[in-house]
Write a structure and sequence with these properties.
alpha+beta, three-stranded antiparallel sheet, 7 helices, 17% strand, elongated
């Protein structure tokens, strides 16, 4: 197997690394350590060119400090399988390539984290006003899991929840219009759509939706629907690393 990196990390975790919520070292898979437990060979290199006539590929050493004589080297093959993956598509949208930070690799995620020299909370979230402008620089906005947002002073800080991020995303779309027109920025208001809580088994399940409580089998059915979708993500994470480690069971 050939890879330009010494380690691999699941791409869906890169956003957590970027905001400082995840330690990459605890999640990465080291190839050299992996080969000692499984029957394959690992070659460090960046794919450069294919010579299908002579059945070989030309590789570049990914580290710039390498001796020039060893910077390029070839690797012969009998059968070649490409699993290069993909990068974010900007769909040729004007300005995206120049101004957007992409998260296609661990390096990009760590670079983005280093760029975030802003006022943060204890979870490394960027502190923002109710307008979602960062307190360090009003020309920079943040939303979702990376933002420490407290729209109402006497109420708790909004948690890292999907519905918070979704509502903030929709808010920012509409908030850009007054900004472009140099008008006052609107304030974000969060509308709680409810949360599902499992306290124990059976009837100790309810949905909290504003002032309304839904209990018994109705709430339990709602919880099961939510839990199924959540476990799908967790299982896909386990299955991914299980397959990489050649495990027969991924756990439940």
């Amino acid at each position: 197997m050939v890879d330009q990196n010494l380690t691999h990390i699941w791409k869906l975790l890169l956003h957590e690394i970027a905001v400082g919520a995840l330690n990459a070292h605890s999640e990465e898979l080291n190839y050299y350590a992996h080969v000692t437990q499984h029957d394959y060979k690992f070659v460090l290199g960046r794919f450069s060119q294919l010579d299908h006539v002579h059945k070989s590929i030309l590789l570049e050493h990914p580290f710039s400090g390498t001796n020039e004589d060893q910077h390029h080297y070839s690797l012969s093959y009998d059968t070649l399988i490409f699993a290069i993956g993909s990068t974010s598509n900007d769909f040729n949208t004007e300005g995206v390539g120049e101004h957007c930070h992409f998260l296609d690799s661990r390096v990009q995620a760590e670079q983005l984290q280093q760029l975030m020299e802003f006022e943060k909370d204890h979870l490394n979230r960027l502190k923002v006003y109710a307008t979602l402008q960062t307190k360090t620089d009003p020309n920079i906005f943040a939303f979702g899991d990376c933002a420490h947002c407290q729209p109402i002073v006497d109420e708790p800080v909004l948690g890292p929840r999907a519905q918070v991020a979704s509502q903030q995303a929709h808010f920012l779309v509409s908030a850009m219009s007054p900004r472009i027109k140099n008008k006052a920025q609107p304030m974000f208001k969060f509308a709680d759509k409810g949360s599902l809580v499992l306290l124990s088994h059976h009837k100790a399940v309810r949905e909290l939706l504003g002032q309304m409580n839904v209990q018994a089998w109705v709430a339990k059915s709602l919880f099961i629907s939510y839990a199924s979708s959540k476990l799908t993500w967790i299982d896909s994470h386990r299955l991914f690393y299980g397959k990489r480690c050649n495990e027969q069971k991924t756990g439940t």
